[in-house]
Design brief:
Layout (H helix, E strand, L loop, with lengths): L1 H28 L15 H14 L32 H8 L5 E7 L5 H17 L5 E6 L2 E6 L3 H11 L4 E6 L2 E4 L14
Antiparallel strand pairs: 1-3, 1-4, 2-3, 4-5
Helix pairs in contact: 3-5
Length: 195
Amino acid sequence: MRKDFSVISITLVILVLVAQFVKTEDKVGKKEEKPKKKDLRDYTDADMERLYDQWEENDDEPLPPDELPEYMRPPKEGPPIDFDNIGKMNPDDIMKMTKKGKTVMMFVNLAGSPLRHESEDLTSLWQGALRNNHIQAERYVVEDTRAIFLFHDGAQAWDAKTFLLEQDGIAEIQLEGQVYPGKGTKAKPKAKVEL
């Protein structure tokens, strides 16, 4: 009985080793097969992403500069700066010249403590007034008392700053690292000195 069991177990081990050897030979001898074509309805999101990446890699025709995302576009050449008259200009005019055609963000803090919908209404009103003056700005209210105005032509930001500083609802404006106090800023009373 033991002899039969050992003969059967040795035979099984030999069969497993032969099967394993044959399986390895099949892998080595075969060339890598191309994936089978799937029905378009069976594509998963990962398949669609791979297909899109392959399509983008094989696209020989580059996009024109105006269709590229803004960060990939070549820098625009602004108007030439007249360095002879630069000493006679105020800093705002110099900044307007250097930011022409570039994207600029302006941060606006609102006076008081308006609610979110009041801030939306107020900044929407200012955006409309700017648009009526041919100043294009995108408006984003980020907090109840804070909004961002985005100008694709940075030179327009300084004209908008002049307009916004005249509004009662502005506490301060931050533009290119400079802080400008608005009309809505409450002036602190000076301390009285008693003699």
